[in-house]
Amino acid sequence: LQQTMAYLEIGLGFLAIVFLIYKWSIATFQTFEKRNLPYEKPWPFFGNTAAPAFQKTSNQKHLTEFYQRMRHHKIVGFFNMRTPLIQLNDPELIKKVCVKDFDHFPNHQLFITTNERLLNDMVNVMRDQRWKNMRNTLTPVFTAAKMRNMFVLMTKSFAECLEHLASKTGADTEVDLKVLFNKLSSDIIATTAFGLKVNSFQNPENEFYQTGQTLVFSRGIQFFMFMLSSLMPKVFTLLNLKIFDGAKVNYFVNLVIDAMKLREEQNITRPDMIQLMMEAKREASDNWTDDEIVAQCFIFFFAAFDNNSNLICIVAHELMQNPDIQERLYQEIKETQESLNGGALTYDVVQKMPYIDMVISETLRKWTLSPFTDRVCSKPYTLTDVDGTKLFDFKVGDRVIIPIAGLHGDDQYFPEPRKFDPERFSEERKGEQVPYTYLPFGTGPRSCIGFRYAQMQAKGMLYHLILNYKIEASPRTIPDLWESARNFAFTPRTGFYLRLVPRK
User: Fold this and answer.
1) Which residues have CB under 8 Å from 457's CB, separation 6+?
2) Residue 101 and residue 391: Cα distance in Å, rounded?
3) Cα–Cα distance between 325 and 359 in angstroms, integer?
4) 98: helix, coil or strand?
5) What is the pLDDT of residue 357?
6) What is the spatial distance between Cα 51 and Cα 58, in angstroms, rounded to a whole number?
């Protein structure tokens, strides 16, 4: 009997723990009921994000479909796991929060809580005055003039990528573009952000590429730790857990600090991020620490590595599916090449190519790389409609989400949203766009500072790729990316295979 009682007590104790964990997992789910906002029934632990969390669909598709179901409301509730977010579906309200009344919503909220080196020093994570100072320090770094010089560095990496393709491609070759463009992305970050010349096509085992691969948190152990830190930030911090391997982070810190030291001692200049940050540091009144400087180079891994390689892959995929668009782009590239009279492609020449810009713009609309952006309320704010009707009272700490993927996929703003139509961005039709419905790089003072860098890399590589190859489907090409994508990544796990046919 005693034994039975003991088992019963253990069983009851276990049930009590399970019940408490369950109660904790749904503790925030009354928020929108109390605050009178429409919302969809959340799942325990996962809120409204269960499908992508369980790898059933992609974040983009999931958030687009949520928006489509809820778009008749101007403002709705959404649970990112246990965290309540207030989603703005109306372009006018987005303008108010992100631009006009920015001083009430000046910060992003990092979706992870961690004390890891560098992560809290990145400009996109900094807050208030500290952010403002760093943004002012960085603004001169990303001007068109600085991009011109950086484009020269990128061009060397484009050439190495093409050399590699030429050595691999016979009459026609099936290529995993994701692997190819990851190497390119890594080499470009190495040369433009870290002052390091690397050729990952010749030497894929190089330390920079291998270490950088471990910093992408859309997969593997990083993804698990990322989810854990989102779900249980206090436990994560208490147990001193880390998303990234400290030794790998230190590798990048040492790279930048050693490069800065060497350049100061030997008076070396090179048109890259380290150089620009050294100049900015000298001119800024703020006494930026080495870690704060390194952190700005480090952002490239989170913002540029995966995103920029995905962008080029997805453009290639669309061109494969739309041969007429590919042919028109080829004609523009061919004309541009002829006008260069054997000279090298430059940043200014790329900027004057309208059709390549239309193709990239439409890709960024249809395949939004960042499906949402966010803000945090820093002082109480009453949101009103255009006619002055009160819509909602924001409290300090409220988190706001802007559904970029939803807006981009809304047929009210972009008819036939799943159709790939670069003409939407032609000079004739640009005026039809409703302001604040096309936000590939966010909007307002907190928009992405590196948008020129991303576009320049994609356009430069695309120019060389289409000039030399015709893109076609191969046996392993995934026909429907939208349906097959999972979680944060658009690139299929089986590989991003396309056929590259050398042009005569």
Assistant:
1) 154, 185, 188, 304, 308, 312
2) 15
3) 8
4) helix
5) 98
6) 8
